Amino acid sequence: MSRRASHSESVRQQNVRNSKTIARLIVVLLVCAAFAAGFAIRGNDAILNRLGIDVASKDSQVNPGLTVSGSTYDSLSARVAEVQGVLEQNSLDEYDLDTATNSVLAVLSETADDNYLRYYDQDHYATYLKEVSATYAGVGILFAEKDGDAYAVDVFTGSEAEANGVQVGDYVVSIDGDHGNDGWSAAETVKQVTREEGASVVITFRRPEAPDAQGGKEYTVTLQCSDYEEPNVTYELVDNVGYIKLAQITQNADKLVESAIKDLTAQGALAFVLDLRDNPGGYLTQAIDVASLFMASGTVVNIKAKDSDSVRTASSDQATTMPLVVMVNGNTAATAEVIAGALQDSERGTVLGMTTMGKGSVQSIVALSFGGALRYTSAYYLTPLGYNINGSGITPSIVVDAGTDPEVDQQKVLALEQAQTLVADQVPTA
Prior knowledge:
The protein has helices at residues 3-37, 44-50, 76-90, 97-111, 122-129, 160-163, 186-193, 253-267, 284-292, 335-345, 410-426; strands at residues 118-120, 141-146, 149-155, 171-175, 200-207, 217-224, 233-238, 241-246, 271-275, 299-305, 309-313, 324-328, 350-353, 361-367, 373-382, 398-399. It is α/β, with parallel strands linked by helices. The strands form 4 sheets. A 6-stranded mixed beta sheet has the order 7-8-9-12-13-16, sandwiched between helices. A hairpin with a 3-residue loop joins strand 10 and strand 11 (309-313). The longest helix has 35 residues, at 3-37. The protein is globular, with a radius of gyration of 28 Å.
């Protein structure tokens, strides 16, 4: 081959590479546009005609970004639609739409302000919709979610997870080698690791050096699914104070807490401590009902959505009027924060501990016409006095850290002492 022919072939190959690079970039924009606008346009002429632009000749075509009479390219969908038309008319390159969709929407999720925005492809959406019955077993971990990523908020005593060194605060990286669509949410994780008893699941965790730190050491464990009986509500009478620990806001949380209140009252409780530490939240209706056990009336939570706001009030099922201390920490999240905020703003309870997570938002999921689904933040929780929980959390009236002695629950000790003080304040003087 001559030097000139070799040079021509090199130039041709470079042009092909450039063309493919440009095409890939355009695919990114294309899928973003489909995501944002929800429509596709078949060709450049159709695009420009829709925009009211004369397409009688190629000279009348408009470059991306220009403002045309009556039309503006401030819209991402309009810009990308024009570029798509140019490619469909002139480009010889092809691309895999599903692969491009998965990759680009993952990037879009990372660049959005919504940390919980996530696109589920069809397989991961099926996992999300998976029904889990009581006959299935888990791995002995209570999962919560922060900024869209699942982590261990509790490791059950005696579980295989505990034996394998899984610790509170460890984040889920992958399950059976699958990194999910831009990570694993708590709901996905629970359903993916809930299997028949005896089945195994391989989970890779990331252990950050600090609770909010990125990076950290990754490790992989193989856990066998088993039935774990971990009570959602535990309680005890300490002197004359009823201590109630609520692990998560399940469908029967209000009934369990109410039963504990009645039993402790019968035992002689004159005040209560409601422990919401490490509670990842759960059902909003149940959170309202739990708060209502301590509130006679009033607003429990304000819900701010895009086009409308709503107010949820106490259900008039108050179970006790006795003094109350509410315990919280950095893992108290979502509807558990709603309970703490309601009891604090109504001056019904004294909140003690550390500032809560600040996960005061509601996520919705909508199925997409081209397969899979989109999860996004659709509303925010505000306390009765109008404070936005999201990003700020609930600041305790009495700030108490966990202490340095793992054998002593310093927060619980001080909460019980505070409850005793509240009891003493109510005793009439002679």
